[in-house]
Amino acid sequence: MERKIQEFIDAVENDEVEHFTSKTPQKAFYADPDKAVAPLAAFIREQIGQDHLAQAETTVNGTDISVRLELSVINLPLQDTKTIAKIMDVAATAPLNVNAVIETPDINVSGLRIDALAPAETYVAQADTADASLHDWLKLQIEKLQTAAENAKEAAAATDQPKADLKQPATKAKTATKRKTTTRKTTAKKTTKK
C-alpha cells in the first residue's frame, strides 16, 4: 500500500481520511489497554483492506490521554502535513505505515509520542505480531505515565511538608566593617650640589 507524497498530503488536508473515535474509562484503559485499542486495530485493518487512509482514536475519560493509530507515509502525526511537505520529496511515492500515537502532557516534554508499528500490508498479514508490538508499545507508554504520576505525587508531598519541619539556616547579624585607609608617603627629593 503506497501513496504519492503530494496526493497523501492533499488527502489529509482535505480530510479524505476515514475516522473512528471511541472513549475508554480510565480504569479499563489501565487494566486492559489491549481491549481498549482492539477496536482501533480492527478499524485500521478494515481500512487497509479497502485502500483508504485512516485514523482511529480513543480518548481516556477523566484524563487528557489520547491514543491513536494512523496510516501515514512518515513517522509524524497526520496533522503535520506542512512538515511532511518540507522534509519529503512530494513527487516521490512512499509506503504507508501504521503508526501508534499517544498524546498527553505526562508522556514527555513535547506531550506526544509516535512510533511506527508496521507497514500497512504487514499489519494485516501478520496481525498477531502487529498486535504484540502494539501491546508492548502500550505497556511502555503506560509505565511512563505511571512513573510520571508517582514523581508528581512525590514532588507534591515534598512541597506540602509543614514549614515547622523545615530547618532554616541561622542568619548572622551583619556588623559594620571599618574601612582602613592607606596613606601614601612621599619621598623627599634629593638634590645634589654642583
- Main beta sheet: 5 strands, mixed
Helix content: 40-55%
SSE string, helix = H, strand = E?
A: EHEHHEEHEEEHH
What Rg, in angstroms, do the CA atoms define?
A: 32 Å
Number of strands: 7
Q: State which percent range the strand residues make up.
A: 15-25%
Whole-Å distance between the termini?
Answer: 113 Å
Strand order of the largest sheet: 2-3-4-6-7
SS summary, helix count: 6
Brief overview:
The chain has 6 helices and 7 strands, in the order βαβααββαβββαα. The chain has helices spanning about 5-15, 25-30, 35-50, 80-85, 120-125, 125-160; strands spanning about 1-5, 20-25, 55-60, 65-70, 95, 95-105, 110-120.
Characteristics:
194 residues, alpha+beta, five-stranded mixed β-sheet, two-stranded antiparallel sheet, 6 helices, flat
